[in-house]
Amino acid sequence: MSHVFSLLSEYDCSELIKKNSDGYAFIPWMNAHAVAKKQFPNYWWKFETNSNGLDYFLMPDGTAYVSITMTIEGETVCTSLPVFKGNSNELVTNPNANDVHNAKMRLRTRALGEFGLGHTLWLQEHVEPEEPASPVTEALEQAPATDPQDAMWADVTKEKTKASAKKAAEVYQQAVLGGNDLVDDTKARWRTLCAERRWK
To answer: Residue range 38-62: average pLDDT?
Structure first.
């Protein structure tokens, strides 16, 4: 067993695991990213691109998949994931930017699973055969958004207290800073939330 898998597979994910409306267990991708950054600050990943420079691969039937290469402490995992619709295992035909973005974030969580983080979620007793897309964000279940960062921020707005929302905002910021082509708007969103809830 590798050093990375040994460490991440022993991480207690019990407080991170959520369930979607169909009962599938998953770890929200922002939380998975935050754990990985704390354990391995220099962990690295790259979403593979096709010959046209796009970060997804179209199949002849119009469906698509995304592919990732991730390296932690010199160990590398290459894996892929189809682009699914919402929190189902229904394939998307001609995916839009939001479909692709969500698939990429789920795929990053899956790659971390292959490194050991919450890996039991992908075992036969936890998911249906063919491995449906279990790492789906709770925000997407509640309110799918055209702006991926709106979906991410939903984890902050669901918090009831300023202290818990502040912690969620920090996780949001870590995810944004670790994403591709995302703008760190944490301060502006935080000011707006505080004003709406009259937090000082």
So the answer is: 91
